[in-house]
Amino acid sequence: MSSLALAARNSSTMLRRNLLHARRYPSLTLNLLLTPIMLLLLFVYVFGDTMSAGMGGGADCSAYIAYLVPGLLLMTIGSTTVGTAVSVSNDMTEGIVARFRTMPIHRGSVLTGHVVGSVLQSVASVVLVGAVAAAIGFRSTDATALEWLAAFGLLALFATALTWIAVGMGLVSPNAEAAGNNALPLIFLPLISSTFVPIDAMPGWFQPIAEYQPFTPAIETLRGLLLGTEIGHNGWLAPAWCLALCALGYFWSRSVFDGGRK
User: Fold this and answer.
1) Burial class (CB in 10 A: 0-12, 13-18, 19+), 20
2) How many helices (DSSP H) and strands (DSSP E) are in the chain?
3) What percent of the chain has pLDDT above 70?
4) CB 155 within 8 A of CB 77
5) Helix intervals (H) in the chain
6) Is the dihedral of CA 252, 255, 257, 262 positive or negative?
7) Rounded to whole angstroms, how far apart are CA atoms 82 and 105?
8) What angle, 0 to 180 degrees and rounded to 10, lies between the N-to-C axes of helices 108-135 and 27-45?
């Protein structure tokens, strides 16, 4: 069997393994998924009218729902990938990876299985949160089929980027608890982005913090694709951030994994 065929076969096996784990132990994914759903319901039904009025939308909060949802979709990806860091750390500390190292399998397939499985879970989580958003009033009537395809591609690319970062965090963590703590910035960063309010409504000293981070360009690009708002330079910043994070996470993860740490 060629090296490429072996890698594909072993990666497929590892993917099935990780999907089976997610199906048998869904509590971690569900707990992380509750965060964006609860924030969505909180900001719509508790703060929605006030936030809408403050942003010039009047008493009707439908405009604020449309503003809020793109950011929460990306926050959903960040929340889901925290589970990836925990899962990778469990594999490294419980001895299964040491067993895999003694078997004639492609070394990269272990990480590939985690990454592909996490991306699939992230996409499923985004679909679920999107369904909840649609049920409470989110609409994107002006987006064309091409814009919807581009939005889906951005979400998948962003999920891949954050997943590789989460894999690296899991590899360098001494246990699952530390992995979950190390991955908390993937949940925290959306809270200080343009998810909930426009950047120009923030204090002047805080605006650079919200603007110069990976979530804000992706959120603004997703808003532009789904709602027809101005995208501007975010159209190239978002994929640039994704590709940079993908490269960083991939080489970091492979370096740690191939180096035999833990």
Assistant:
1) exposed
2) 12, 0
3) 92
4) yes
5) 3-24, 27-45, 48-54, 62-93, 96-101, 108-135, 145-172, 176-182, 185-191, 207-211, 215-227, 234-258
6) negative
7) 27
8) 30
pLDDT at 57 over 60: no
SS3 for 216-233, per residue? HHHHHHHHHHHHCCCCCC
- The structure tokens 């679920």 sit at 128
Backbone angles phi, psi at 57, to 5 degrees: -95, 0
Which segments of 173-213 does DSSP mark as H helices, in order? 176-182, 185-191, 207-211
Across the chain, mean pLDDT equals 86
**pTM for this one?**
0.89
What six digits make up the tokens of 258?
A: 């191939």
Q: Which residue has the tokens 């979709």?
A: 73
Which of 48-57, 60-69, 76-85 has the largest mean confidence? 76-85
